[in-house]
Specification:
Layout (H helix, E strand, L loop, with lengths): L1 H5 L5 E6 L11 E6 L9 H4 L11 E2 L11 H13 L12 H5 L5 E2 L10 E9 H18 L5 E7 L14 E9 L2 H16 L3 E2 L9 H7 L12 H6 L2
Length: 239
């Protein structure tokens, strides 16, 4: 979070967090800062056609992983290796815009890593004054649960539009997480909901698959119920 504050001049910023790291390593992460390059700065290999789409040449997963293969031990080991793959505290390189904005597209059918049951996404935002305390509590809860997310993305939002109805962003930190589907993870997410609400935060409706009507109504208080349009989600959330 200190590095985010110091990097406000960059156009793009995003961090990967290791949800399996605890105690003194809690919240360890890799921050990726991005800035547009002009043509003269580009290496020769990119000057010819710098705006072309990146070729799809990454790994292709031809089958769903067995359920037992994605577990606490394997994902914790992978996170450890990913964090330590960068030897220097700071590196600089030219990156294709596709690979910067959509890194998962480098692995075709990456969702198969989670097995046939799939995964549930969970994203929340906390106001800036409550972000540090709330994120610490949430990361501690996730680490103790053993339900760590292989993919955890932290971003810093700017000021929100006061006139936007049902707007998710607010000035503060948002953390997006993916969890392998199992009965235990849903119980943990209910506990995370309470931490988010206690820190005046809210969940992202576009990624929600299990929020309760009570959580929704406590965090999106300005919403007026509509009888003209309804979806499976709005029926569950009673608006």
């Amino acid at each position: 979070m200190r590095l985010f504050d110091e990097s406000g001049g960059y156009t793009y910023s995003v961090a990967w967090l290791d949800c399996f790291a605890g105690k003194k390593h809690l919240g360890r992460s890799i921050l990726r800062l991005g800035e547009h390059s002009n043509h003269e700065e580009l290496p020769t290999r990119l000057k010819k056609d710098p705006l072309s789409l990146a070729p799809i040449d990454g790994l292709n997963l031809p089958f769903y992983f067995p359920v037992f293969s994605v577990n606490y031990a394997t994902v914790k080991a992978l996170n450890f290796l990913y964090y330590h793959k960068q030897f220097s505290p700071r590196t600089e390189s030219f990156d294709h815009f596709d690979r910067y904005f959509y890194p998962l597209d480098g692995i075709q059918h990456w969702n198969r890593i989670y097995g046939r049951r799939g995964f549930v996404q969970y994203q929340f935002v906390l106001p800036i004054k409550n972000s540090y305390d709330g994120l610490v509590k949430i990361l501690e809860k996730i680490e103790r649960s053993g339900q760590g997310s292989p993919l955890a993305v932290l971003k810093l939002f700017g000021k929100q539009n006061p006139n936007a109805v049902m707007s998710f962003p607010m000035e503060g930190y948002t953390l997006a997480l993916d969890f392998k589907v199992n009965p235990e993870v849903f119980r943990m997410l209910d506990e995370l909901d309470e931490i988010v609400l206690n820190h005046n935060g809210r969940l992202y409706l576009a990624k929600d698959a299990r929020m309760s009507a009570d959580v929704f109504q406590r965090s999106y208080s300005k919403v007026v119920p509509s009888s003209n349009f309804q979806s499976a989600q709005s029926a569950r959330l009673k608006f």
